[in-house]
User: What shape does this take?
Amino acid sequence: MQRFLSFLGGDGPTSDQLCRRYLILGGTGTISTGLVMHLKGSHEVTCLNRGHHPLPAGVEQMTCDVNDVPAVQRALEGRRFDVVVDFLTFTPEEAKQRVACFLGRCRRYVFISSATTYEKPPRTLMMTEKTPQHNPFSEYAQNKIRCEAVLRDAMRTQGLPLTIIRPSYTYGDHDVPFILRPRGKPYTLLKRLREGRPILIPGDGNIFWTITHNSDFARALAALLDNPDTLGEDFHITQDECMTWDAFCQVIAQAAGAPEPNIVHIATDALCREEPDLIAALKGDKCQTAVFDNSKLRRYLPGFRFLMPFREGVRRSILAIDGDPALQAVDEAWDRRMDDLIAKLG
Assistant: This one.
């Protein structure tokens, strides 16, 4: 155990750790990018994806559609990995394909599920890994639950060396996480804040939520995988810090040098009636309390600390966005949508 305790508070593995062969299914999304950056240089890292986005130097690209089973099997021929981390499985049918492809090819298969699978609405304040999994509002969450069932069955009946990980809302250095924001164009929200324009927050703004930086997620996951006792277990990896959505908004505004935010609260039910496509994101996720008990994580990783509080993480993100013109596009359609909803329902 001492071998993996030594780096829980640091930025990466120490020299006494074994170099492992990691295969990341994905590797270019927000959460998986954090893991790739954490592992590269200390381990052999291969990313299997369609090759649409460049990878960091030193990371091997395996170009393949993960859902093309014959192609994946050809690409994997003669290769074995210590750890496969799967960010790309979203349906039970895909989970069955992964078992067919990776059973016998790795020492550990890590399925990235989601904390949205925990029951909605919650019956208790703190969620643990034993919280029932039931989310009638989100097809995404329902499918992740079914994926977990398929993989657990493969663990019981075929010996799949499984670990399940459930992230909640996780962001990186080029994103501004928030309850309602345009995907891929974070400058849109910053611009609204800096101009003092109204910011829509569903409900009364007092729902407590948890947001985790991808560097903290990566450190925790790498540490869990260095502990052999975590085989067959499930964990959520979520910050200890939690705030209300109003408080998140105020922190973002301060980090952006914006005035006190002009928050407009609109009832969640009214928003979902007007915009049914928001039901999964709001009723199935961000308008339900999300506070996590991390006791199990720390039983397996004594001394682990989350190092990136939201105030620091979002400051880094805004500095990166302000410094890169390519990240300063505005989603005009989303911007108008917010104005229309506020005018109609606010």
